[in-house]
Design brief:
heterodimer, A: about 250 residues, alpha/beta, six-stranded mixed beta sheet, globular, B: about 325 residues, mainly alpha, about 0% strand
């Protein structure tokens, strides 16, 4: 088991945003979490990536407990993520945005910076090379010198993915990668996600666009009101009564 | 071509700075410029934290005062030599900075600004009320000028000017190196989005603390130089009025740019000296200028200048060289 959550719960006041969720992610697969608005999907991501401390339950990564680790340590283990709204540095180029993504694999400190040591020069080159490599993977080589403010929404999504890739992750969590982009561009992103998966990267994504998920995911979990209501292959999910009810409303006679 | 222009411009500026006292032979101007350089060092410290890391500290006049009083007390009361006292003053300020930073950096944004404003005021109060140590409102007098380095003495206005100029150049150089390194990129990532910085594995607390301590170090250095230059210090140097002067220099010059602190400090110090005859009514001129700059040029004079140059370069269709971190 690659990533496993046991009994994972997060309460905000009296409200359980995530309630006793058992979930597992297998290595090398494309996993997806779906559910109506406010179902607790993003909270679930935040629990795994260390942004929220769970109220109870555990998160295991390759068998070790990472429940209490801070977000930056979790990133160091090889767990990376993107956000729903991309928070890139708009007044800077795509390349400059991505370079800092490899910082966690470097060691140079303040004294290296002031003295401009060999180590700093070597690591700066490593960061730049890494950035160029991941920019090529996401297909933005042509735009690497453009200001982030001047590129399209879809290119910003790709930049955010490149930034996550620059950390050398083993698994990447994508929070609604296709939100706010049109269907042609969505197809491009689907191809990119498949391509990343073929390179051996494990993927877990949250998405609203059902057609996208059904084409893409190997394994799906459905959340509703913070609880897991179904889990399985796309086929199993699309014929599950509870899921149809959750999406169409309780009174639907499906 | 571009690089050549920039480099020759910098060299010309440096030569001008060196020749200034020789050309003008006017102690008043030399004195004023030396003072602005000292303020500029403190503003560079604030800029590293507020401009590059995104944490606006309002405690730095307090750290400036800690640096000044440390040097004053060490040389006057402990009768220490200037140079070890200077090093110690910077260290003392940094240690106090570290202790305050650990707590202050648990807050963010407005809360950080308000918290540090309080810290700055408390430092001022401690200096003002601790009569036995600091001399209270009477201040500290009889601080010596920097002691000789071998045959070089620092008794004249010119020699002090060159001493302060040297420190300023070293400070700008060190900050240039930091900003254009992986450490600088890390600071910028934190300024941009702390959440995103954490997801890419950056320990935000460690880096923020580094930036905070560094900025207090520069404020302390400026304070120590001020004490030995003016030779008299009172609690007022740690007051909020000074803090907002420093902040004004930074905002007018350009927050988050390398040249901003120097440009802003020089301009406003010279302007305020020339408006001396207006006395308190000077603020009637400063107020509107500051408001207009914040509204129309939020990146200050330097920031807006470089934005404008970049835009023009893009329009003329020249191939844009990737801009490293930020120009200015």
């Amino acid at each position: 088991m690659f990533i496993e959550t046991k009994n994972l719960t997060k309460k905000f006041g009296g409200l359980a945003a995530v309630n006793k969720v058992d979930f597992h992610i297998e290595k090398g697969k494309i996993n997806a979490i779906i559910g109506p608005n406010g179902a607790g999907k993003s909270t679930f991501f935040n629990l795994i990536s260390g942004f929220h401390r769970p109220s109870s339950g555990t998160v295991l990564f390759k068998g070790t407990d990472i429940t209490k680790l801070p977000a930056n340590k979790i990133a160091g283990l090889g767990i990376s993520r993107t956000f729903q709204t991309t928070s890139l540095f708009e007044q800077s180029t795509v390349l400059d945005n991505v370079i800092v993504g490899h910082r966690l694999r470097t060691k140079s400190n303040l004294f290296d910076a002031i003295l401009r040591t060999k180590r700093l020069k070597r690591e700066e080159k490593a960061c730049r090379d890494k950035a160029m490599e991941v920019i090529e993977i996401v297909g933005l080589t042509h735009a690497s010198d453009k200001m982030v403010a001047s590129i399209s929404q879809e290119e910003k999504k790709r930049t955010a993915i490149a930034l996550a890739l620059a950390t050398d992750p083993e698994i990447i969590f994508l929070d609604e990668p296709a939100a706010g982009i049109n269907s042609d561009e969505t197809q491009g992103l689907i191809n990119l996600i498949k391509q990343l998966n073929q390179r051996g990267l494990t993927i877990c994504l949250i998405e609203h666009k059902m057609s996208m998920i059904m084409n893409l995911a190997d394994h799906i979990m459905v959340l509703n009101y913070g609880e897991k209501i179904a889990e399985g292959t796309p086929k199993e999910i699309s014929s599950n009564d509870d899921v149809i009810k959750a999406y169409l409303g309780g009174s639907a006679s499906a | 071509m571009k690089i050549m222009n920039k480099r020759t411009g910098l060299i010309a500026l440096f030569v001008l700075a060196i020749l200034f006292p020789l050309i003008f032979q006017n102690d008043y101007y030399t004195h004023m410029l030396t003072l602005s350089f000292i303020w500029a060092i403190a503003v560079y410290g604030i800029n590293l934290l507020a401009g590059y890391t995104g944490y606006l500290s309002l405690a730095h006049a307090g750290f400036f005062a800690i640096g000044a009083y440390s040097l004053g007390l060490l040389t006057v009361k402990a009768e220490m030599n200037f140079w070890p006292a200077l090093v110690l003053a910077c260290l003392i300020t940094s240690v106090v900075g570290l202790l305050i930073g650990v707590i202050a950096l648990r807050t963010k944004e407005h809360f950080f600004a308000i918290y540090t404003l309080c810290v700055g005021y408390i430092i001022y109060l401690v200096i003002d009320k601790w009569d036995g140590l600091t001399g209270g409102v009477r201040g500290l007098i009889g601080i010596n000028a920097p002691s000789n380095i071998g045959p070089i003495t620092f008794e004249t206005a010119e020699s002090q000017y060159y001493l302060v100029l040297t420190f300023l150049v070293v400070v700008i150089f060190v900050i240039y190196r930091i900003v254009h390194s992986l450490t600088g990129r890390t600071f910028l990532a934190i300024r941009n989005s702390e959440e995103l910085a954490q997801t890419i594995g950056i320990s935000t607390m460690k880096n923020k603390l580094t930036a905070f301590v560094l900025s207090t170090f520069f404020a302390g250095l400026a304070g120590a130089l001020y004490a030995s230059f003016v030779r008299f210090i009172g609690p007022d140097i740690g007051s909020t009025a000074i803090m907002f002067d420093l902040l004004m220099y930074l905002l007018v010059g350009g927050i988050g740019t390398l040249s901003g602190p120097l440009v802003g400090t020089l301009m406003l110090v010279i302007l305020s000296q020339n408006l001396q005859f207006l006395q308190e009514y000077r603020m009637l001129i400063f107020g509107p200028i500051l408001t207009l700059i914040i509204i129309f040029y939020p990146r200050g004079i330097s920031g807006s200048f470089f934005d404008w140059k970049r835009k023009r370069r893009n329009q003329t269709g020249n191939v844009l060289k990737p801009i490293k971190v930020e120009e200015g």
